[in-house]
Amino acid sequence: MSDYTVLKSPQLDVKPANRQLKFLIGAVILFVAIAYLVVNAIGSAGAYYMTVSELLAYGPQYQGKNVRVSGTVVENSVDYNAADLILKFSIQDAHGQIPVYFHGPKPDNFNHAAEAIVEGKYGDDGVLYAKTLLLKCPSRYEDYNGQQVPVDYEEIEVKSVG
Predict the structure, then answer these.
(1) What is the rounded CA–CA span in Å between residue 154 and residue 59?
(2) Average pLDDT of 39-48?
(3) Rounded to the nearest 5 degrees, what angle is found at the Cα of 105, between the Cα atoms of 113 and 53?
(4) N- to C-terminal Cα distance for the chain?
(5) Do residues 135 and 153 make contact, with C-beta atoms less than 8 angstroms apart?
(6) What pLDDT shows up at residue 101?
(7) Judgement on whether residues 27 and 73 belong to the same structural domain of the protein
(8) In this structure, what CATH number is given to the domain that contains residue 135?
(9) Residue 102 in 3-state DSSP?
(10) Are residues 88 and 132 in the same domain?
C-alpha cells in the first residue's frame, strides 16, 4: 500500500475585524469633514454690518474682509459704463462717504434710490468692491411743503455678474 499525503491549506490566524473600531473611525472622518465645511462656509459668507462712519473709523481693520455697509447714495456720484457693466458711485452718512465699485447691471430705479446696502470686500485703496447691491427705493411719494417725500420703501437686491 502506498501512503498518500494530503496537503492541507495553511490556516492563517486572522482575527475578525473590529466593527466598532471601523464605525468609530468612519464617524470621526465624517464629523471632521462636516465641521470643515461649516467653518469654511461661515468664514466665506459672513460679513460685518456697519455704517459708513464705522467703516471709515475702523477701516484698516476691515481691509480685505467682507463687509456690509449701509448709507445714502451720494447725488451726482453715479458713473455707469453700460458696455462693461461697471457701476461706480458713493454712499455716505453724516460723517463721511465711501466710493463703491459694482460689476453688474445698473438697477432701473437706481437714480431714485435713497439708501443702499452694499456687500463686498473693502479694498486697501478705500474702495468697497461690491458683490451685492441692495437698494431701498421709495415706492410711494407724498407732497410735503412742495417736495416729493418718500413714504415707504421697497427693497430691491441685485447680484454682481463677475
Answers:
(1) 30
(2) 69
(3) 45
(4) 92
(5) no
(6) 93
(7) no
(8) 2.40.50.140
(9) strand
(10) yes
Cell of 83: 458696455
Greatest distance between any 2 Cα atoms in the chain: 129
Between 14 and 72, the more confident residue is 72
For residue 29, which phi and psi values (nearest 5 degrees)? Answer: -60, -45
Structural domain for 40, as ranges: 17-46
Q: Is the Cβ–Cβ distance between 132 and 125 less than 8 Å? A: no
Q: What is the pTM of this model?
A: 0.59
Tell me how far apart the alpha carbons of residues 94 and 114 are, in angstroms, rounded to a whole number: 14
What is the pLDDT confidence band of residue 32, given thresholds at 50, 70 and 90?
Answer: very high
132 neighbors 160 (Cβ within 8 angstroms): yes
- Amino acid letter at 28? V
Same domain? 22 vs 64: no
Query: Nearest-CA neighbor of 96 among 76, 69, 66, 124?
Result: 69
pLDDT at 56 over 60: yes
Q: Is 59 helix (H, G, I), strand (E, B) or coil?
A: helix
135 in Cβ contact with 106 (< 8 Å): no
